[in-house]
Amino acid sequence: MFKKIALGALSAALLASPAAFAADAYKIDDVHSHLNFKILHLNTGYQYGRFNDFEGTVWVDEKNPANSKVEITAKTESIDTRAPKRDEHLRSPDFFNAKQFPTLSFKSTKVEAAGKDTYKVTGNLTLHGVTKPLTFTFHKTGEGKDPWGGFRMGGEATFSINRFDYGINYMPDGLGKDVTLMLSFEGVKQ
Amino acid sequence: MLISFLIPLAIALGAGLLPLLPLLHPGLRRRLAPHAGLLALWLGYYAGYTRMLPQWWQPLPPVDSTRWLPLLLPLFALPALAGRRLWLRRSALFVLGAGSAWLTMAPLMAQGQAPLLLIPGCGLLLAALAQNDSASESTAAWLWPLLIAMIAGTSGTLFVLGSTAQMAHQAWMLALLQMPLTLMLRLGGRSLTAALADSSAYILAALWLNAGLYASPAPWQAWLLALLALPLIGRSSLARRLSPRRLALALSLTALLATGATVTAAWLLQPQDVYWG
Asked: pTM for this one?
């Protein structure tokens, strides 16, 4: 009885492993990647900012996109809106509460093909201690060898979230609810 | 931006004045005055807080530990049930204060960054602030809202300098709510109720804890706030030792010094660096 269970488990592992190895892992090159955002201020103009410190890996299997995966983590302390006092305000309990929530992260749960070099990515965004499902479209912008002997792939994605959903609900009159995040990255094949 | 900042303060004050309306009827004053103050504080604070932070109760329990304050506030009316047994009231406040500090600091403790002495420290502060104000002369009763208004107002200014407008909002709401409390004392409340005093003290202490742990206050601000807390702790002996005239003079001087110190510090820190949104 136990022999049958062991053989079954071994077979399942052997069958699963080729699919896992088929996805190529691309580590995000933070020097050539950008995680920006914008939000409407006083119903007047968009304010832009970025996270200077983030990392992640993108696993890509173009033959079977379901094996692809995205994991990105950004440090909330690294927020940068070109105004140090505003950055300090954004890090405070009024918004990101960076001392309690030092990171924001996204982990995909499903990737589907949605056209040429386009993928529909579904996953969970964890921000301000709250995890919510999120779906966005990812566009592959290119790939090729780099001058340093590596192989890299690039992509970008734009999506919006409602900051209230994540408990970042201070100043409902002064700042818009919707925050648009824009990710553009180059990943180096591992 | 200024209007959107002022709206929660106006709502807090408006809501805080509502429980005082029945006191306009002389027949209801004696019966309702002891409870009107606490109701004014709660109604005003929650109304202003909800306008400032819509849906603050989601999720429950709060993920952001600075949001334990409105959830725990009603608990701080319970130690007053100890009545004249000050030791029991102080013990209950110590436990509640330490417990609320623990909840606030839990995320930092998980990161290995929490100054654990703040847990009993918060409890000790709240216990020390509890006194039998009704046993002192009536000067002690009106001394409380005056001191709280001064300390809360100064705290709000310091919180803005520490880049947390949310804490400043709450501190200024507390300062404004001393107006209906003073009116309550005028209209018929002879003494400050213990529940009211303990609740106000908790709001102040929790704001200092939240700002100190999660915002960016400068160390000198913490020392200034500690100095401001001293007359609050010593208010009963102040009321016993000083005549009303001398007490009024002492308070006015203290308020002037505190305000002057804050304005001077703000000037030295280059006010154009203060971010107003």
From this structure: 0.86
